[in-house]
Amino acid sequence: MSGKTFYITTAIDYVNGKPHIGHVYEKIASDVIARHFKQRGDDVYFLTGSDEHGIKIQKTAQKNNMTPKEFCDSNVVDFQALAQDLNLDYNKYIRTTDEYHERAVQKIFQKLLEKGDIYKASYTGLYCSGCECFLAQKDLTEDGLCPDHMAKPQEVKEENYFFRLSKYKQQIIDHINANPDFILPSYRKNEILNQLENIQDISVSRPKTSVSWGIEVPGDKDQVIYVWIDALSNYITALGYESEDDSLFKKYWPANCQMIGKDILKFHSIYWIGLLLALGVELPGTIFAHGWITIDEKKMSKSLGNVISHKSILEQYHLDSPDALRYFLMTTTSFGRDGNYSDEDFKSKVNADLANNTGNLLNRSLSMLIKYFDGEIKQEFVNDDAKELVEAALNAKKKVVENFDSYMITEAIEEVISLVNLTNKYVNETAPWSLAKDENTLIDCAKVLYNVAEVMYHVAVLMYPVIPDISQKILSQLGEEKNIADIKLDDLKWGMIQPKKIIDKASLTPVFLRIDSELAGDKKK
Ligand code: MSP
Q1: Does ligand 1 lie within 6 Å of residue 389's CB atom?
Q2: Are the beta carbons of 157 and 124 closer than 8 angstroms?
Q3: Would residue 364 count as lying in a domain?
Q4: Of the residues 52, 97, 125, 481, which has the maximum number of CB atoms within 10 A of its CB?
């Protein structure tokens, strides 16, 4: 262990619909980061969960003739199933209807009331239930609609509790300016600094006459706590903040990385930070706002009927592991920017990178090892003569680590794919099949195959956070019996392959089968 802790959180999903590829994108990215930091030896805690209060859930439950709690209980199951479906290795799933969370949120509210940072005032505003927030006139379209939901916000005149956000405005601005990694990608920073210019106190409760589904304001039976205050608090209540046992909070907070979508950056880099400052709680290291996934270049929406789930993709292509989808989503765009999913891109990307470049390289080199050397690596094959290749493998590890330092997942993967491409070139140039034809050069053929095996070991370990199943298969075919999750990056160096018989013919199966478009087409019909 490195002795360091690493706490990563995702946004908690509204459970008023089914999980789609957008929810999935963020959870996969966070899982990839969590796995990478475990490889570094950090003590990682990975949190995800669901956001279950508010008017949006209340209304949808009503439409379904269910109580909000019944509705959440039935819908949350699909969100929790993502763990299994996508191989997410998180430590905890928090639901904002969990009792311990509700109690802690009330205590947080009470603390701020006592401090004078929450006060009561009357308010008139325009509320968008899709965003679960008040919008200013200037935020609306010409027709007076919320630009994200194309719906008319409701005019409300209420007596509410307010949080003195304006008191913390300067501290937030100073923090953003002093910490270049606080908002990542850095190109999103200015948008937040601009919004901070006009920041005012925010309403943090709703009267029960408008919304009944929420956590009651302590000491006021007529009001519920605003859903965003409730939801944002999950990041610390999940660790036991304001509970009898806050040992996890003491151990893991502050979060190293809070992963969210770009649409909710304001809530995280302004409201959340204001709350933490008011509570006297340390601030998180990085708020990372990823981009949005579109489908065939169009925003996903129920009205367009183009909402895609991970389930439909996995079924369509008969995939029993989520690795191909994980890989595609992590490479479809530079992580942080908006990305796109299309069937065509998915097929061509995973076929090219996973089946052809990586899978075939392993398969053809191990086939030769079996054919010429009975699948055995002997001591005399071990070498580090191919300097360029050895250096490229070591360099790939260094670059992967550097990229993950700022959560640049896509660039990290590209480093590994470059190593794969270089190795393919190396095999083509050294032509081990020709070297095998002559007794005098047979040893050179063996050395080449050893070198390729060594690179593939590196590839498997470096790619493990993204494609855990495939990586494990690669490692097994290289004769490594260890669980790949247990291999630490510090231990990864040239010379991982132990001289022994590493594979026999029966065990040589492709680690990733090409996605067959015909098959997928049949299934679609
Ligand atoms: N409940 C709030 C978050 C509260 S966090 C304290 C919420 N929920 S959500 O279900 O609407 O979205 C959950 C996450 O999924 C958000 O980070 C959001 O940005 C992300 N995505 C939702 N649709 C998306 C895409 N189409 N593409 C990528 N991510 C998107 O917001």
Answers
A1: no
A2: yes
A3: yes
A4: 52
Q: Is residue 380 a part of any domain in this protein?
A: yes
If one compares 134 and 6, the residue with the highest pLDDT of the two is 6
CATH number at residue 386: 1.10.730.10
Active site residue 302: yes
pTM above 0.90, yes or no: yes
Give the active site residue among 4, 69, 149, 251.
149
Decide if 334 is inside a domain: no
Answer yes or no: are the C-beta atoms of 55 and 212 closer than 8 Å.
Answer: no
**67 Cβ partners below 8 Å, 6+ apart?**
61
What are the pLDDT digits (tens) for 429-465? Answer: 999 999 999 999 999 999 999 999 999 999 999 999 9
Answer for the pair 112, 252: CB distance below 8 angstroms, yes or no: no
How many domains are there within the chain? 1
- Which run of H or of E encompasses 403? helix 387-405
Question: Is 524 in the active site?
Answer: no
Query: Does residue 255 lie within any of the structural domains?
Result: no
**DSSP H or E segment with residue 216:** strand 216-217
Residue found under tokens 């592991």: 321
- The secondary structure of 298-337, three-state, reads ECCCCCCCCCCCHHHHHHHCCCCCCHHHHHHHHHCCCECE
Contact 225, 244 (CB under 8 A): no
Active site residue 23: yes
- Residue 493: give the domain boundaries: 343-524
Half-sphere exposure of 150 (CA within 13 A, CB side): 4
With a 6 Å cutoff on the Cβ, whether 51 touches ligand 1 is yes
Is the bond preceding residue 68 a cis peptide, omega within 30 degrees?
Answer: no
